[in-house]
């Protein structure tokens, strides 16, 4: 995997910790000889991710300050980790993303889920909104499927971390970021969502349009 952070000390600590878990880690994209299993990138190094993902379909974890992750990101990511973080927490996130990328964490079952003009083919992992195809990251897709299968139920961010991410603990801000990005892709007006509704003091619920 590739680790690139603006602070070389952070890259070094992360690399050493992941190597202890048995991963082969590079810190210089020029030294890659093939597609890495995973990219771990600082917010300021997103261009590296775009360049590599244009060549290979590689999962990405983005590292950034909370205020950075709250703004609109111009690159899809499979997960977001807020700085400062513990190396162990990052290692757990890495393990979860790799399991998902290798197909061991996917929405159970197949079939097609429909809500008005939104059509989700679970088995094919394909989404359409009207006549347009919607491109989702793996995590965004799993989150959408879970909400569609459980309409009109309010879930806390902790609930969603457990049931979609498979984490018993973690930074719930990653749920907030994924919900925002999902709204941008499936809502007519992301600033006034009609499908993924914020339940104040709780979390989110999916409200069918049909």
TrEMBL record:
Keywords: DNA-binding, Phosphoprotein, Transcription, Transcription regulation, Two-component regulatory system. GO terms for molecular function: phosphorelay response regulator activity; transcription cis-regulatory region binding. It holds the Pfam family Trans_reg_C. GO terms for biological process: regulation of DNA-templated transcription. It comes from the Bacteria. Coiled coil: none annotated. Residues 1-98 form the Response regulatory domain. The modification 4-aspartylphosphate is found at residue 42. The keyword Phosphoprotein applies. This is Response regulator transcription factor. Residues 110-208 bind DNA. GO terms for cellular component: cytosol; protein-DNA complex. It comes from Herbidospora galbida. The lineage of its organism: Bacteria, Bacillati, Actinomycetota, Actinomycetes, Streptosporangiales. Residues 110-208 form the OmpR/PhoB-type domain.
